[in-house]
Amino acid sequence: MDYKLLKHIDFPSDLKRYTISELPEICDELRTFIIEQLADNPGHLGANLGVIELTVALHYVFNAPYDKMIWDVGHQAYAHKILTGRKSRFNTNRKFKGLCGFPNPKESEYDAFGTGHSSTSISAALGMSIAAKLKGEEDKHIIAVIGDGALTGGLAFEGLNNASTNDNNLLIILNDNNMAIDPIRGGFNQYLTNLHFNPTYNKLRFKAYHFLRKIGLMDDGKHKSAIRLGNTLKGLCAGSDSNNIFEGLNIRYFGPIDGHDVKWMVQALNEIKDFKGPKVLHIITKKGKGYKPAEEEVTTWHAPGKYNATTGERIKTSSAGEPPLFQTVFGNTLLELARENEKIVGITPAMPSGCSMNIMMNAMPDRTFDVGIAEGHAVTFSAGLAKEGMIPFCNIYSSFMQRAYDNVIHDVALQNLHVIMCLDRAGLVGSDGATHQGQFDIAMFRCIPNLTIAVPRNEHILRNMMYTAVKEPRPYVIRYPRGKGILVDWHNEMTTIETGVGEVMMEGEKTAVVGVGPLLYQAQKAIERAKTELGISVGLYDMRFAKPLDENLLEIIANKYEKIITIEDGTMIGGIGSAIEDWIIEKGYKGKEVYKMGLPDAFIEHGTQQELYRMLEIDSEGIFQKIKTIDKQ
Predict the structure, then answer these.
(1) Phi and psi, residue 315, nearest 5°
(2) Are strands 279-284 and 503-506 parallel, antiparallel or unpaired?
(3) Cβ-count burial of 361 within 10 angstroms (0-12 exposed, 13-18 middle, 19+ buried)?
(4) What pLDDT, in 10s, does the model give residues 250-292?
(5) Which terminus of the chain has fewer CB atoms gathered within 10 Å of its CB, N or C?
(6) What is the 3-state secondary structure (H, E, C) of 397-459?
(7) CA distances from 360 to 21, 200, 325, 332, 393 (A)
(8) Rounded distance between C-alpha atoms, residue 230 and residue 607, angstroms
């Protein structure tokens, strides 16, 4: 497509040269640009199509990067990136060494705050707003854009509560699209829906307030009286009590307005941007706006993979004869177990389709619970269910579980409750990058008493670990990676696995590789190559549990081998390699050399999983080179 206007826009200063009447055309071109770019280079499509007009309006009205915009969740910031100097590089989005898929202050001064996880914008923006006041920057605008389900997170409410009591000029844009990855569930979403009931009233109220303020009949002292009058009128119109939670917190509320009317958005932002005190502009948008397939199948088109931009046909690679996703195996196994045991329930914080809990949710909706983007609540809710005799499977992505650390310790482990926590996306997740890498879970949980940490290397073991976790009344963590498994035929009859017992995969002579998870198959390739090319016989051992360690197996390994290579897809600081090395020292084994392989003390950038394994030298080639090097020592 010939982008007649967009081709001349590289920075917000270029955008400001156009008239307001030209902005709709710019929005259309920007929307088409994103649709065409993501067709071949997959990313988050639906959320970004929904904020085109908002993004254009914000950069038209405000003066970034002096004015700060915090995007929450950050996967809705593509248009922002394109308008802030990164259009020519947008084809590298989410690629190795390319643009990050989320706002990243290291990438651009226009990215005010890193927001790969949700619900952080209000707290961060409040801090920036107060900092601006303390520095005397009274003309600086701080805008938090919160949407795509992020307002269901508890931290957002903590930020709202604090914003209402501190002297600040924060502007909160509530991008209300009724969606996260899946449809939003919960009472607050219904509350927002109720606020939509009379858009004519809201628009008149907004204009009346601005007019009265302009002619001097409205000031900050009279504002609360106007709020009470307005809420009374709204309650009468609705036939019920419709008091506004934001204004109840002394945060001025404007809206809801049409988030796809860019001219009206510019007018609204210009009229309220200099109002003193915290304020909320509530806009209504449609996820996937302007692209029919994305509007009709919102969850599928949240991140659809490759597709034909013209026809909307998704391009799927053939999966016939290939292993299923670990997530798919989890979802089907959970339903099998739930059919056998009526105490089993499923809990997920806003990711039923992502973790495949939707399989059980479709079959047993009364026994599955999507609690919204609220990881801490998901864990403590699960603890409450377990306390009363239920068996909850709480599935949370590994990097998101970081947000529930206190809940795991105090509400599950300390009380020794039978909660089964399944950590999806453990290890390296790929193109989502540093904010989503599941690199810390083993180190994070290994120090917590009462926890069992199970790490399956394939789908059979995953199923057996889930089956075992149901049978054992203790806190149980099962971590497994994103993506395809190892086995094509994964429908094994489930059996229990003795907790804390590892497995011998291959016997060797002087050197052994010891680890957990699917990386052991990379090690197996390296060992087979070492035998063929170097004539070296290397042992291979799957610990299967990061906690408790199989001490009997470790004794066999320590007595038999001189050199031990540990391998894991988590951080080496506090990981299983560290645990094995500590055990060897503690037990007094002399002359044993331990070589740890895993993730370094660093945040890992984005790229495909294969690219990242290669970069970190923990693929089969890297393991082979490690074997070769230490054999010569």
Answers:
(1) -95, 110
(2) unpaired
(3) buried
(4) 899 888 899 999 999 999 999 999 989 999 999 999 999 999 9
(5) C
(6) EHHHHHHHHHHHHHHHHCCCCCCEEEEEEEECCCCCCCCCCECCHHHHHHCCCCCEEECCCCH
(7) 50, 42, 16, 8, 11
(8) 52
| 317 to 244, 324, 332, 442: CA distances (angstroms) | 49, 13, 22, 33
88-93's contacts with Cβ under 8 Å and 24+ in sequence apart are 88/10, 90/33, 90/37, 91/37, 91/41, 92/41, 93/37, 93/41, 93/43
CA torsion angle 66 72 75 76 (round to 10): -70
Give residues with Cβ within 8 angstroms of 620, minimum separation 6. Answer: 522, 523, 525, 526, 529
Q: Is the pLDDT of residue 68 over 60?
A: yes
Give the Cα separation of 48 and 490 in Å (integer).
37
- Of 140, 289, 403, 626, the active-site residue reads 403
Convert the pLDDT of each residue in 100-144 to its tens digit. Answer: 999 999 999 999 999 999 999 999 999 999 999 999 999 999 999
- Which residues are paired to 542 by β-bridges? 503, 515
What secondary structure does DSSP assign to 320-349, as a single string?
Answer: TTSPPBHHHHHHHHHHHHHHH-TTEEEEES
Task: Determine contact, residues 451/423, Cβ cutoff 8 Å.
Answer: no
Per-residue pLDDT tens over the stretch 556-581 = 999 999 999 999 999 999 999 999 99
pLDDT at 215: 66
CA distance 446 to 575: 8
- In the block, which residue shows the tokens 């709204």? 234
Tell me, yes or no, if the pTM score tops 0.70.
Answer: yes
Q: How many beta carbons lie within 10 A of that of residue 375, not counting itself?
A: 28
Question: Which member of 53, 247, 375, 568 is catalytic?
Answer: 375
Which residue type is seen at 429? V
* Tens-digit pLDDT profile for residues 443-456: 999 999 999 999 99
User: In the prediction, which pLDDT does 503 show?
Assistant: 98
Q: Is 287 a catalytic residue?
A: yes
Both tokens of residue 400?
């998101």
Phi, psi torsion values for 12, nearest 5 degrees: -55, -30
The pLDDT of 155-181, averaged and rounded, is: 88
- Give all strands (DSSP E) within 285-386, no chain letters: 344-348, 368-370
Q: Are strands 344-348 and 368-370 parallel, antiparallel or unpaired?
A: parallel
pLDDT at position 194 over 80: no
SS3 content of the chain, % helix, strand, coil (to 5): 45, 15, 40
- CA 583 to CA 578: how far, in whole Å? 9
Q: Is pLDDT above 50 for 60?
A: yes
The answer to whether 80 and 90 are in contact (CB under 8 A) is no
Closest CA to 493 of 469, 471, 463, 465: 463
Statement: residue 552 has pLDDT above 50: yes
Torsion of CA 392, 393, 394, 396, to 10 degrees: 180
Mean pLDDT of the chain: 91
The 3-state DSSP class for residue 622 equals helix
How many angstroms separate the most distant Cα atoms in the chain?
90
- Residue tagged active-site, from 287, 463, 482, 544: 287
Flag the least confident range among 112-121, 174-183, 455-464, 490-499: 174-183
Structure tokens belonging to residue 452: 């069992």
